[in-house]
UniProtKB/TrEMBL annotation:
Residue ranges of every copy of the Aminotransferase class I/classII large domain listed in the record: 35-395
The family this protein is said to belong to: Belongs to the class-I pyridoxal-phosphate-dependent aminotransferase family.
EC number: 2.6.1.2
InterPro entries: Ala_Aminotransferase, Aminotransferase_I/II_large, PyrdxlP-dep_Trfase, PyrdxlP-dep_Trfase_major, PyrdxlP-dep_Trfase_small
MF annotations from Gene Ontology: transaminase activity
UniProt keyword annotations, A-Z: Aminotransferase, Pyridoxal phosphate, Transferase
Lineage, uppermost ranks: Bacteria, Pseudomonadati, Pseudomonadota, Betaproteobacteria, Burkholderiales
Pfam families recorded: Aminotran_1_2
EC class (word): transferase
Taxonomic source organism: Mesosutterella porci
Cofactors demanded by this protein: pyridoxal 5'-phosphate
Protein name as annotated: alanine transaminase
Length: 406
């Protein structure tokens, strides 16, 4: 008897458009020899950023001793370095037993949701979001309830909206700071407001802080957990961006603050962590040396530095495009511009992204890919060097000069 194999229903509402159909089309065009300018993916290596040579050397040196599995939580040397990093950032009450290393933060985002949610449980997730969060909540059987980040307030979370969305089923609040896709850094007052809501409803905080070391203009990142010693905060971080090591798959998750009455959840995390045995051990062996050295990105984030100059370039050229507005980012390497949908007749942002790709050979990610409800935004990753960015933004300007979707 022949069987038909369909994808699992668990995936029915799971989406991850950053690597979705438009990227497939761009890859097809590239294979056909077309020159597509990729402004769509936060992978520094693609844009000629190199992992520090000292870490590559360390990896070579460590390989013979990292052939076996490690403890499921990770190598002790790595966890000691992470615990020290937490102390420096005032992330409270994190011992080596509260740390889990992962194959990137990605694996741990999924794990943190799988261990927590029963069908129908709710998690507050930002809109726009880094879409893995919504996808992971959904895959775990939960419901992602989006709170609005308000462009008019520099994309800060709208605390009123957040509070109004808490229900009896809400289990946690996800905070991505600095944010992908908006590139903004939240001030302490906003974080305190989020903690207040979590405190009132006894919610777990999930702090995705993978860009905490990529902040510009002398601003300072405050770790969410540092403001909530009385709550459980799951803090996530890693080396993909700060040390230009995305391919090594190296992240971690720390349980900070008050773990009382959350023991069941922690048991679940321990079980899931044990089931995947451990994360990549050679990569783990680089956590301690990486955290002991200055961030490779640090020198790129100051005037004259590569990322800083690229941000200036993208902001300057975007501001010359009629019908486009934006909030200037403070961190990471993303910007989330707004299109005047009336002017361009845009009702479908995925179609806009495809039209842009086909006409100008530029690949961006449309706002819906970040669970943004209006068809009026898109994300640019400004990791390309200034000449390529200039070329891409010139093509973008040409495109908008006569684009009408309707
Ligand atoms: N969280 C955010 C906000 C991200 O932007 C990314 C990657 O772009 C990740 C998590 C996943 O990073 P990784 O799995 O490489 O650690």
């Amino acid at each position: 008897m022949q069987k038909t194999y369909l994808k699992s229903h668990k995936l029915d509402h799971v989406c991850y458009d950053i690597r979705g159909p438009i990227m497939d089309e761009a890859n097809r065009m590239c294979r056909a020899g077309e020159d597509v300018l990729k402004l769509n993916i936060g992978n520094p290596a693609y844009f000629n950023f190199k992992t520090p040579e000292s870490l590559v050397e360390k990896l070579r040196e460590n390989l013979p001793d990292t052939e076996g599995y490690s403890d499921s939580h990770g190598l002790l040397s790595a966890r000691e370095a992470i615990a020290e990093y937490c102390r420096k950032k005032d992330i409270p009450n994190v011992g080596v037993g509260d740390i889990y290393t992962g194959n990137g933060v990605s694996e741990l985002i999924t794990m943190s949701m799988q261990g927590l949610l029963d069908n129908g449980d709710e998690v507050l997730v930002p809109a726009p979001d880094y879409p893995l969060w919504t996808a992971s909540v959904t895959l775990a059987g939960g419901k992602a309830v989006h709170y609005i980040c308000d462009e008019k307030s520099h994309w800060y979370p709208d605390l009123k909206d957040m509070a109004s969305k808490v229900t009896d089923r809400t289990k946690g609040i996800v905070v991505i700071n600095p944010n992908n896709p908006t590139g903004v850094l939240y001030p302490k007052e906003i974080l305190e407001g989020i903690v207040k809501i979590a405190r009132e409803h006894d919610l777990i905080l999930f702090a995705d802080e993978i860009y905490d070391r990529l902040v510009m203009d002398g601003k300072k990142h405050t770790a969410l957990a540092s403001l909530a010693p009385d709550l459980l905060t799951v803090s996530l971080n890693g080396l993909s961006k700060s040390h230009l090591m995305a391919g090594y798959r190296c992240g971690w998750m720390c349980l900070a603050g008050n773990k009382e009455r959350k023991k069941g959840y922690i048991e679940g995390l321990n079980l899931l962590s044990a089931m995947r045995l451990c994360s990549n051990v050679p990569a783990q062996s680089l956590i301690a040396p990486a955290l002991a050295m200055p961030e490779e990105t640090e020198k790129m984030l100051v005037p004259g530095g590569r990322v800083y100059e690229q941000r200036d370039c993208v902001c300057r050229l975007l501001s010359e495009i009629p019908g486009i507005t934006f909030e200037r980012p403070d961190a990471a390497f993303y910007i989330f511009p707004k299109m005047d949908t009336k002017r361009f007749g845009i009702t479908d942002d995925e179609r806009f992204a495809l039209d842009l790709l086909k006409r100008e050979k530029i690949l961006i990610t449309h706002g819906a890919g970040f669970h943004w409800i209006h068809p009026d935004h898109f994300r640019i990753v400004y990791l390309s060097e200034v000449p390529q960015l200039t070329e891409a933004l010139t093509r973008l300007k040409n495109f908008f000069a006569d684009y009408r979707q309707d």
